[in-house]
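[job 4471] stage=fold_predict status=RUNNING
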Amino acid sequence: MDDLTVLPIEAELIRSRHGTLLREGIPHAPGKCAFLGDEGECRIYPDRPYICRTQGLPLRWFSEDRAGEIRERRAICPLNDEGPPLESLPEESCWLIGPVELELANLQAETRDPDESRVTLRGLFDRAR
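[job 4471] inference complete, writing structure tokens
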């Protein structure tokens, strides 16, 4: 869970709404999400990332790269990544992201480079110090 990554636009939302936590709080011990509190609660629940909202389902979506080619992409929460590689799962075993979910990707594309590197949740604490 330490290497859970989010889109840069999601990281910016967390930074903008949870600055005090990032400056003064302590990330949860490695091995669990950095944003878990002492009681196991999510300290950023209203602004939790999309991967958390999908509860670790294997996700599948299509996007256009800079060359205009449509590519399939897949992702899953690291807590649920045991088993066969995502690429080997049949299409019907993945949650196909539809138009509503793609709005997040569109926001990312409008505000930043859509291929920009993802941000680790634990790294958000490090950047604030």
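[job 4471] summary: The radius of gyration is 15 Å.
[job 4471] exit 0
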